[in-house]
Fold each of these.
Amino acid sequence: MRQSWVIGINIFRQLLRNRILTVLAIFALAMGGLSVFLGELGQESEARLGRDFGLLGVEWIGYITVLLCHVVLLFEETELKTITMLLVKPVARWQYLLGKLVGSSLLAALNVAGLVLVLLLVGWARGYSLASLPFFLAAFFLLWQSVVMSAVVLLFSVLASTVPACVVYSTFTFFLGHFTGNLVEWMAKLNEGAALVLVRVLYYLLPNLAIFNLSDSLPLGGENIKTGIALSAASFLWPLAYGAIYALAVLLLAAWQYQRKEI
Amino acid sequence: MSQPYAIEVIEVQKRYQSGDFWRPIKAQALRGVSMQVRPGEVYGLVGVNGAGKTTLMKVMTGLLRPDQGQALVFGLPAGSMAARARFGYLPELPSFPKYLSAREVLDFYGRLQGMEPRARQARVAELLKWVGLAEALDKPIREYSKGMQQRVGLAQALLHDPELVFLDEPISGLDPLGIKQMRDLFLSLKAQGKTIFFNTHILSEVERLCDRVGLMHRGRMLLQAPVADLASRHASTVTLAFRSLGPAQRRSLKAMRLVASQENQVWTVAVANAQLAPVLAKLKLPRGAAPTVISANSPLETAFIKAVRAEEQG
Amino acid sequence: MERLPLSRLLLIIALLLLVAAALASIARQSRRDQAELPLAFLTPAPPKLSAFGFTGALAGMRRVAADWAYIEMLQYYGTGRNRLDCGFQGVIPFAEEIFWLDPHFRFGILYTAAILGFNEGHLPEAISLLQRAARTDPGYPRYRLYLAGLTYRKAHDNPRALQILELMVQEPDRPEILVRTLGNLYIKNKDWPKVRAYWRRVVMTDKDPRTLWEARLALAQAAQHGY
């Protein structure tokens, strides 16, 4: 685990300095600008719009960060062969993969924190406050979703032979993962065998990303929003546990495949 | 022999598969290669591009798993954690994260080797000074020349002071000054008693640096011998080109057991360096008919050309 | 890792995915029990659901989809050209969509109900919306207050409807549109003293540019009538 941490910190440092990731800083600023623009459009509901679209931005910045991280790392591995000197060191290949997950997650955390700060500043400048525990919790769980997606992107980076293939598979899974939560409801309505089997397989294989979206459930506070409903602590534990176990399953598969990969 | 070989390769075979999964293209990269390298030896592996040298080195370092056979490093399975702790590896054209400095890169590798912070810092500084990069150690690697990156690569291979060093085409792509600098570093390593295994297609470096040499061609090990043996058994030769050779001159050559072959109205003859003057004297060439030297082969080149020709013919 | 046979690895992964699926179901159930938003498509969708609304509902982004419908509604209502559309009839599908996507978007529901009921005369639709909202969100008293105002208006009991409106505009965070609605009702009723008093108070306390512009117009009208 220590090796993974060392690798993760190194990856975090090198990606932080990579200019391609400044696009994420621009994204964060653009989200701040969008909050202002939507606030103007939404008039009295500016705080709610800032909160909701801000959290949407948090979800996207988290995903784009981990996607870009793995894309850059995959490019360096396949084209520049930076990996060969590392894999002959006393480091297991699974430790290297875990290190990539750690590094990309750290960068996602930094970017999410940066965007949350931008949103808080925009709110303060516009005369409303986003700073509340439910808001930070919602942002945290979207970050946790990014960690899960990082494991998924990592798996595709191991399975796919090219960068574009990795991007396509990962993004497809990201979109489909938002619909997984509703598959259960559809399953109850399906009688046909083949469709039901397919839906069940998809339900178990795809990540259930709706689990991490607490913004539809949490009382986020502010004008005319219902307050006083508190979800139980267990409601927060289940998504955390789900994310950890799903990411572990995905990592195991990635590690097994990577062990067999010829460098 | 009580001490294990530094490197031992036993009947290793390796096949690459590429192309689409429904129409795979298979290429046999290694065909039953066997070899040994003793501790303290400097071994040079030569061969043309595509001979299988890098594949063999990757098998020895554990980056590739052989389909058949076995590779051992100090008696340990190649690729095992224990084996990895005992060698350093410099790949061909090493590449580093562009935005890190040499110091940061070496510090990172040192952490992976499990080195303690103080020892690591001292060793990094010492190595970067040894390879001549003390002035540039905090610059981002993207500002380094190819030669500088090669030296950083060598430094990372030696970070944990390994007994064995693998070097894959260490002087490929370097300018003459860079080649000289690398050669001096290798000689220094040799003087320290390290076992060095390196791939190259530049025979002159093998002649200068190596104790033993191996020749690979099309995935097979054609020849392995001490450099000194090869030098003594095979003379360096020159190939002469004649615009014309009369029947008398051809008979003289035949009497001296030299074969003249004609192509496009030019006669060529390979002559041992030491025999050049006597041969020219016996040919009694008219004035203005002196031959042109079109190539000169060292003993190693001569040995390898013979071995490759023998393999291709038969 | 290397020595683990594929069959055993797949078994471990399958077990982990099953456990994960079970945890997801528990999380989902606890959310369903306690959450503000019922899960998508458990209630019938409105007939004119936009593509964004449909996708948002499926993808678990219902609040954002409701926000977007609200913005689109404001854009639709904010441009005068839609007035020919039978008095902004197009607001009705927006109202239905907002309510279906996020029945706890109180401000959005109140705003659209105010437009429909007080401004554009679509009283049955406004009352229906508020009644459903009050059933879903029984702890929120403003729905009942707005319902009372609209009920009086429907019964043409303008004095009482005005009384309710006066209560509504005193609420903090009331839709700004109600301020203008009440002020314009005074003008419609030609109650010039009240017009002057009301709109002067608005000019001193309100910050909304459109409201202030209407206030100045109203005060000018009152001045023309000697007040």
Amino acid sequence: MRLVTGIVKPFKLDDVKTALESFGVQGMTVSEVQGFGRQRGHTEVYRGAEYTVAFVPKVRIEVLVDDADVADVLEVMAKAAHTGSIGDGKVWSTPVDEVVRVRTGERGVEAL
Amino acid sequence: MEIDSGNTAWVLTSAALVLLMTPGLALFYGGMARSKSVLNMLMMSFSALGIISVLWVLYGYAIAFGATRGGLFGFTGGLLGLDDLAPDTVTAGLPDLAFAGFQLMFAVITVALISGAVADRMKFGSWVVFAALWATLVYFPVAHWVFNFGVLQDDGSFADGTGGWIVQRLGAIDFAGGTAVHINAGAAALALVLVLGKRKGFGREPMRPHNLPLVMLGAGLLWFGWFGFNAGSALGANGTAALALVNTQVATAAALLAWIGTERLRDGHATTLGAASGAVAGLVAITPACAAVKPVGALVIGLVAGGACALAVTLKHRLGYDDSLDVVGVHLVGGLVGTLMIGLVASESVAGRAGLLLGGGGGLLADQAVAAVAVCLYSFVVALLLAFAVKAVMGLRVSEEDEITGIDQTAHAESGYELTGIGAGGSSMLAAAGAATARPSSVEVH
């Protein structure tokens, strides 16, 4: 099993969610986060003064998937989040040892 | 003398209107500060309501409106505690107590205005002491210079040598307090922040307003109350009050438009904060001039003030002083614009003297400049000395840790918003589970 994590532009959340649901993903967790990548931050002008905003708002999407689906889920998320401009974000996967469904006690792939 | 009930009713009402400006200012400043400092901003204004009202009754009125000592300050023993002012003590149809109550509100808000410059970082106790000392040594005497017309004689004129030096000897025009209130508070704010120093992160972090609806609510209350401030200064329900009211409205409207227009050109956006600041800049600038110009003159003053103040608020970044909520940029600069522009656009038919652009020569402009510079210099120098004195005796700034944690939590043991569980004592799931850090029941006083 793998945990797929995507950091994407906030306005792309709905597209990514729809694409993942169409693919057949059963659940996901989302959170609002801030950070920067190669784009660094950006500058803003307010009341005549220029400021560097170091951390840009992003959305983090986390999905637990079976090993067999990892490549597809990564592609689905990357495609749905794509705009082609800087700051589109990243998606990656990490190994997951064990998963337990709290209600039933099911383990492993059964719990996904 | 007979009490004029119409005039008295208007002055009493105006006093209540001006009172409301200070809570309005508290909201205006509170919304502009960061969320961790909103309560401290409110408390600086509310503490001014407390301290200055008490001092005014005890001795402030006696200094501002007692028998003059060379036009520089007043003193009449019987006015201590307003002791000699009976309900039937009447001047020109108006009970002296009504006038004393009306003027009390001016003293309160002038002191509260200063607090916008020191957001996030000034020890609350030091603010209280500074406010009391500055009111005593600066506001009360300067109110005497500007607002004390002297002793009224039977023929309706004021006896020579019995009034404040600016209003009587110099003859400068300051109808409702462009010098005594706005230049005065703005100059003191500048002096105080020079001694206090910049906030941590000033110039690097954006430090944007945390609650703009609060700012708009505050600006609305200020605008509303300002009709009492300006039209109430006519001290009567009469044509001068009506002129002041209309001029106040048109100047404020023009300044609002000028500010957001300037911003749109400079920064690309017309902001909510700009609309609120522009309105206040217009209110400030028209304050001294509201009974000295015709409505079109007021419109011009508003336009100039809105544009000038919108540009002036960036000076702090270029010159490196942290006037946090732009007291200098709005009140000092707006006060100077209004006071000096009287010398340009005063109308002889309403002011008795014409400005330079309306054929009156440069005499009035020179008198206005003397009044503006005198108040500015006096307030700045005394505020600077007071700031150094308070710093030496009790310190001015909270510790770096307290400033970063937030002055609401460290100085007042409260937070403006209980929205999150961890560390804020809110009612979230985390707090219910005992994961939130308990708030200390007593907070160390620094």
Amino acid sequence: MRKLIEFKNIVKSFDGQVVLKGVNLNIYENEFVTLLGPSGCGKTTLLRILGGFLEQDEGTVIFDGQCIDKVPPYKREINTVFQRYALFPHLNVYENIAFGLRIKKTGNDIIAQKVNRMLSLVNLEGFEKRNVTKLSGGQQQRVAIARALVNEPNVLLLDEPLGALDLKLRKEMQRELKRIQQEVGITFIFVTHDQEEALTMSDKIVVMREGEIEQIGTPLEIYNEPANAYVARFIGESNIMDGVMQADYRVRFNDKTFECTDFGFKQNEPVDVLIRPEDFDIVKPRDGVLRGTVKSVVFKGVHYELMVETQTGTSKTVKMNVVTQHDIVNEAAGEKISANDFYVDLDDLENKELTDRDFISIANAQAWDEDNRDISLTHVNHNIEKAPGVYSITFGTEKKTEVTVKVYVVHPEYVEDARHNIGISALDFFITPDEIKESMAISTDLKTWASAEAWNLQDDSSIEITDVKFDFDPAEITEGSYDITFSTRGMLYKVETTSAHEEGDRIGLSFGPDDIHVMHKEVAEA
Amino acid sequence: MKSFFRMTYPYILWIAVFIVAPMFMILLYALTRSGNSTLTFQFTLENFGRFFSDATFMRVLLTSLRIALLTTVFCLLIGYPAAFFISRLKERSQTMMVLLLTLPMWINMLLKTYAWRGILLNFDLESEFKVFIGMVYDFLPYMIIQIHTSIAKLDGNLLTAAYDLGANKWKTFLKVILPLSVPGIISGITLVFLPAVSSFVIPKLLGGGDYVLIGNLIEIYFLTAGDWNFGSAISLIMALIIIASMWLTRKLDRNAQED
């Protein structure tokens, strides 16, 4: 194929914001090329530079062997289908399509011949006299395509032309556009942010991100061999895991070593590992390469999407002591007061400078008057020392209504998971049955009561505790001691399957070496 | 819906008392002879006969139409380019320019016309030319604002599309901008022609005593001669001419759009 367009190191910025950072791209004859990327990636800017509506700050555009940097748009052999069609409202369908030919002073008989051919190409025979403002979105779209193609350009630019259409019409126009491109046999350059559109129609996809090209390839290449995690995430559903390339054809992830088809990485290079959700086979647990539990099932029409946990996260189990507290009544003052015993960890005591206010909140100390109105607590006295042991703390109101509870100062107990760099901590706690019964969001409250937290051991950033396990019914709670387990997210895989499964099922996952795709880690931007 | 309709009663009453009734009175005066008693009307067409059979009146009518037409054409010739260039400016400058243009409209027309009288006193010009200058000055802003509005609301993508299809700037103007600003031109013409054809302050102050337009004629017959019947007949003829000219421009506009 002959090279038709060449972008050489195109740089463009708007108001100091760099939109294109030196783009190099070749486009060949008769190609259906899609520029794909999220909004703001520079794809439309690149298209407008080619159309001549914008001028690049640096770089050159070569068209058919000629530099066209100084050629005005109306002299370029390029036509555009605009985002909102931009049909001329004062002209009917026929005259809209004939516009370019009339500018060139083409004879009426030739215009009629060409316009009619275009009308049948886009399936709009009989619409000649129609007012364009009264057409449907899809019909306007067809007129816009015909109006551009009638000039017999070498290249047709399409700037997100299907964005305004509904889903069904969009699918129909995708097929139409592909058919028209094959029929007229010219280069189409199509701009979209819709990955499905790109996969359906293109011969070649150019994936862009923040003014740079991430990858150029056929739809199949882009889908099966994405250059990095960004491309993989943008195109299709994906599972991307941290891994290490131990040697050629050997990658380690999920604490296991797998055979794969990738090579050419440095030894022990950290990599991103991609497995597409549809590449998993679900088998009996003992036959699986990985084993796991189904955490959620979503029905997607043709298939189910399962989230399968193959490794539980890091967890910490604490004791919840449920005890009924009797309110202390001060008859003389007409007041009642209550508080719970509580645990404090030595680290917090030393590092956090706990105030009276903190103790009131940890002990859940409260006082009321005869009408059940809250009364503020005016004094807190305690003998807590910075050493493990049992101490006492007294909370009181202005009228000397007081309650004394026990404080257990304990050594901090962390669970550290060095392999996954996760630390997690939680404390035993005392609670009344009423507080549990009144809780609106029991998992969240349990996390608060137990001061449960998890963090990254390397950078101290906080990690979400996604699972709170307990085996009691909050509505029926009675006094006693209960185990509560807090854990972080484990290893989760998105799996597509056509067979039904239920949450909690134990299953095995199987996949072959060619289902694994290993990618270089993206270089973190400075 | 019915109660909503009832809310329009005050307006209907207003229209009936202050618009329909006076117009009916004019019609009645135009079709009757003076000296009517309250109950007996002497219907006649002689007021109209008198107007059309007298060469002087016909000359006044033609002069009025001629100067109104000239004013309109000249306003369009100055106004269109002005409106076009304003619409090419940045949005803020556009607002500023439109404000500057409308500024003279805040001043009473009588005052402006007196000012022109003072200026033109020093020049030895024909009465008609002086009146023409005064009219163009007074009515030009209406033309510019109407056309500017229609060009400013034009979708910029249409121009890009025209360039894309091979039209240079001049062809884009001829084939896209001009046809799409026709509605603005039509309303500009209407807003200039109507007051110009019936104006009486401008010819009276700038034309001197010998220069009479149809507006002055009506004024003379109502106020000086006290012949309300003939005055009403002239008003009616004027109204019919205006209606006819408006109908004509609308029709031309529609034909232009269907082409």
